[in-house]
Amino acid sequence: MKKNKYIDGERVDTGYFSGLLPKGQDWFSPKEIGAIIGRSDQYVRDTFYSGKILGHLSNGLAKKGKEKKSYLRVHRDAVALYLAQSANYSSEELISALSEIIGRLSDYQFVRLEKIIKRRYTP
Q1: Predicted model pTM
Q2: For the segment 36-51, what is each residue's pLDDT rounded down to a tens digit?
Q3: Contacts for 74 with CB less than 8 Å, ≥ 6 apart
Q4: 61, 70, 97, 111 — which has fewest CB within 10 A?
């Protein structure tokens, strides 16, 4: 799915959050996210466990029962979504950020999101 640069005839800045995130990096550690948002890595972990930032826990290739350490990784889209949800941006800036994220969804993810939105807003 291609990024839309125009929505309803108006140009949308699809790179609004790209300037805040390092180029060419899709996954971030808590320490890296903390540096981006100006918080500690512990704050990022607490935010993840409370469900306010989405990410993945992984223990690599360890066999079941032999795991020693879990690694938290957060995708750049989740960082952008967290920034959009937690900051005082104008509604146009929020729509722009959401458009950027939605533009990168797979067709399957987009259809699922569309169904969720229709269920929420259908009387």
Answers
A1: 0.56
A2: 888 899 999 999 999 8
A3: 27, 28, 30, 33, 44, 48, 53, 54, 55, 56
A4: 61
* 60-70 per-position pLDDT tens digit: 666 777 667 77
pLDDT in tens, 82-94: 877 776 767 777 7
Could you tell me if 53 and 6 are in contact, meaning their C-beta atoms sit under 8 angstroms apart? Answer: no
**DSSP-assigned states of every residue in the chain:** -PPPSEETTEE--TTTTGGGS-TT--EE-HHHHHHHHTS-HHHHHHHHHTTSS--EEE-TTPPTT-----EEEEEHHHHHHHHHHHS---HHHHHHHHHHHHTTS-HHHHHHHHHHHHHHH--
Distance CA 115, CA 100 (A): 19
